[in-house]
Amino acid sequence: MPGFSLHQPRGREFTGGDLLAQSLKHLGVEVAFGLHGGHLDAFLMGCEAVGIRLVDTRHETVAVQAAEGYARMSNKPAVCFVTANSGFSNGLPGLATAYGDRSPILCITSSPPTRDTENNSLQGSIDQVVAARPVTKFAHRVIAPEECPRLVSHALRVAYSGAPEAVEAAANFLANAKRPVIITGTGSRSPLARGDLFKLAESFNIPVFNTSKFATYNPKSNMLANGTAGSLAKLPFAQLARPDLVVLLGARTGMFLGGRSSAIIPEDCRLVHVDCDGSDIGRTLPVDLGIVSDAGTFTSALWKRLEGNFQGQIDVPWVQAVLNLASSESPFEKEPEETTSGSLHPYHAVKNLVSAIKPGSIIVLDGGEASAWVGDIAWKCQPSLVITATGYLGFLGNGFGYSSGLQSQPHSAR
């Protein structure tokens, strides 16, 4: 969610309920349906303060159904609210129906203070998140009030499919960007995605990076392929400006892209996230444009939109500087091959190993530090594919299975 100004309510302090209501207002919510409950007071007062119309119903399931009907007719964000436990339980049949019919709604409920958990407090017996998960696409308990804008934006994005004219919006972002980059992930591994991706990159001078989870390399025709996105973290140290537009193409945010540190994806850049799993868009970082789509379908549509009709303002010297930085030698290159303890320096060890690998080979990286050392220079042997076996769960030893599966595929390279 892009930033927005907060408004202090008159005559009382600003609460988490105000932050929630103002976040919804910023996202386009105009009306909410539901039944009052004491735990909802702060939110309902916040809605009144920002002009969100509250429509009272006589049963919680009706509140959910009202939001569902509103969503079908208005094409606007549909919100309902139910109070903790008893109201939530009454609303479950409505949630189940909306889920079954794929109706995009956002249901807000409440709970007693977390300090009263397992304390026989009023309306605190049922774990509402656990109960809601089977009948929702996303269920979450907000523990830190300041996270309301991010989580509400994410929840609505999960509920709703991609916005109309998304390709046109992405094209406009590219046309206005001076320093765009594309970061690819496992979702962009199809031949269609790669083909149109590099046509875009080469035609419009857009550097392409990849997450460490999946990388392809084509040294002859794809000179804008720059290796892992971690290279973007080097830009400030090289006195280079950072990207003003980042397009995530089938790539997940999180630990492999610097989390929320902004080391790789700057806070002040425009962020376009394309993924076939809408629940991942905006999960970690606020996005300016989220597109639920297969990466190949999106790149094909974007290429057709821009081919012969792109009037961009790409900073070509900056692009060249980024290419030079990404292909520069490691700082460990100048260190002695033998450490003070008499052991072979890990950088020089993996450098010698990589030099023995034939071009066009498939490389599978396993382990923690080991995969990091190899990943930084794997591109030197011009592999056709680089895969990091260690994923978000941190499992080690996956490389053997990955290698077996890859070896059984009809690839010309091994």
TrEMBL record:
This is Pyruvate decarboxylase. The keyword DNA-binding does not apply. GO terms for cellular component: acetolactate synthase complex. GO terms for biological process: isoleucine biosynthetic process; L-valine biosynthetic process. Residues 167-302 form the Thiamine pyrophosphate enzyme central domain. Belongs to the TPP enzyme family. Keywords: Thiamine pyrophosphate. InterPro entries: DHS-like_NAD/FAD-binding_dom, THDP-binding, Thiamin_PyroP_enz_cen_dom, Thiamin_PyroP_enz_TPP-bd_dom, TPP_enz. Its cofactor is thiamine diphosphate. Residues 15-129 form the Thiamine pyrophosphate enzyme N-terminal TPP-binding domain. Gene3D superfamilies: 3.40.50.970, TPP-binding domain. GO terms for molecular function: acetolactate synthase activity; flavin adenine dinucleotide binding; magnesium ion binding; thiamine pyrophosphate binding.
